Amino acid sequence: MPLFSTIFIIMVILSTLIHFWLSQRQINSVNSHRNKTPEAFSKKITLEEHQKAADYTIAKEKLGTIELIIGTILIFIWTLGGGLEYLDQFIRSYQFEPLYAGVIFILLMGFISSIFDIPLGLYNTFVLEEKFGFNRTTFKIWFVDFIKQSILGLVIGIPLIMVILWLMSSAGEFWWVYAWAVWMGFGFLMMWAYPAFIAPIFNKFTELKDESLKTRIEKLMTRCGFLSKGILVMDGSRRSSHGNAYFTGLGNNKQIVFFDNLLDSLEEEEVEAVLAHELGHFKKKHIVKRLISMTFMTFVGFAMLGWLMQQLWFYNGLGMTTPSIYAALVLFSIASPAFTFFLSPISAMISRKHEFEADDYAAEQADANKLVDALVKLYKENANTLTPDPLHSAYYDSHPPAPVRIAHLNRH
User: Which of 7, 370, 396, 398 is the 20 to 30 Å CA partner of 175?
Assistant: First the structure.
């Protein structure tokens, strides 16, 4: 067996075992605290609500474990099991032009992979989410969304794939620099275009009609020196009872979006505090920092791909006998997570630091107690566990654990 095959097997198994171990720790931690609401939350969250969150978290973890096992098996089937090799030889038998062969190869691989994703997605929506009272999606809505996503993916994805593959084959030794520039340009274009052209395909957006709340929000944005194109309400309740709020867009195209069910559950001062937190991310330049980090990591990734594409052992070690630009691209996308999984806790740690900073900013611009009240309501309504495992949280969570975050805010 080639050396790289052995290394690849070890890294995939190691990352899978770590994920499984952390998942079991999470289940054990949540289950062991199931019968008592943490003291800091006992006056606002009932034992029944706490137990619902515990059961929901455990159910999600178990489903995630199944997804992990299936995903690991598919990785080995695609690579050392000969799946990609068979698919490649099948496409080569039709003698397509290399560029079109690459597009077909990537699309077929993606289509076959989605066949395994669909059942788990349906189970998550119509069984797990339904069981805990979160799902409001009908099968018709789900199916129409699936068709829209598929068409949109093809319309956007095929030209992008063709440009990347063309650059890989025609732009010389430093093709990866040009490909990286195209990839980043595409990403920024999507960030700009998403609120105006893509999001409305799936959801209905209306201007915020509550004049009192709108005035409060506009005053907050003036205090924070934030310019927005609009304050919108999205019909999130049409698909789920989970509430949320977010910023979208770039430059003068930035918009504030509230889920309708979030506005229904929070008081005006609580909405103001939540928005102040989100504004904190902009004022502390977290978005810019994340974009810079993403730009750098993407640059490193393309540089690594540029080198690996020239190494025969890379193809042979992952089960393919015939080197090609499209094979290199797909193999890299499959194999790289097994070698970069250790970066997840670093990214999560930075994200949690940003969340604390945004909370501090919100406490300066709004009422910290109202942010606490809003967060507790969101923990309750979204069934977020109050007792996560510390190691699991450190590895995965982009937000601080509920007790830690509330204690931090209570110090203001």
Answer: 7
